Structures
1.
Amino acid sequence: MNCPAVSEASVVLVTLTGDPGPVVVQYVSLQPGRGFTVHLSAPTQRETPFHYVVLESAPLSSDVERSQPGNG
């Protein structure tokens, strides 16, 4: 999928919105700056639409105070 916003820190979530047959999404590989590829467990029996969202993860700083129950 062409999506230049994808980076090495991206998390891509994919949902199939049609019935592809007996197939599931196995994993998504990233091509930073270019997009991503959805890898399926088998070839689809028919063209299958899907939705996706690209999230960016940021590393947590070691000085970030984590929320504790009751400290809030």
Note: The mean pLDDT is 87.
2.
Amino acid sequence: MPILACLCSAPPPPPLRGPAQSASRQPPCSVGAPRPQLVSFAEMAVGCVVIFATCLTTAAYVLSNLNQFRKR
């Protein structure tokens, strides 16, 4: 019997159940794309404080030394 006939006459595999079934319905991801990670509240708070302090410190330095900058 030819190999192709043997493969075609084989019964189909049983349907998937459980988590494997829900995972198989998701669209495939591109090969190099990383999965997005959730940011915790602490990380978000630290990031906001750092950005705010950086902008505020720079502006405060310029405003406090404005007379010196005008003299130059």
Note: Residues 39-72 form one domain.
3.
Amino acid sequence: MSCCCCIQKYIKYVKNLISITACGDYCCLSTRADELTNQYVLVLCNSIGTPLDSKYIGKSPTSIHMYARTVQLYWHTP
């Protein structure tokens, strides 16, 4: 007897990963763009890790929350 559903794994290497959050079939990765600039990148990916959209921001996110239709970012302001 064979199983009708299989568990599949996908590996995605992400340089300078800060955080990851997910909701449903999507996830949002937060990374530092590079060491020299104060830029951070948010990458929206599907369930197999394919990037769907990305945004550059100028502040380091301290918390990211993902919902069905929105991604909320929080950061510390001195």
Note: The mean pLDDT is 86.
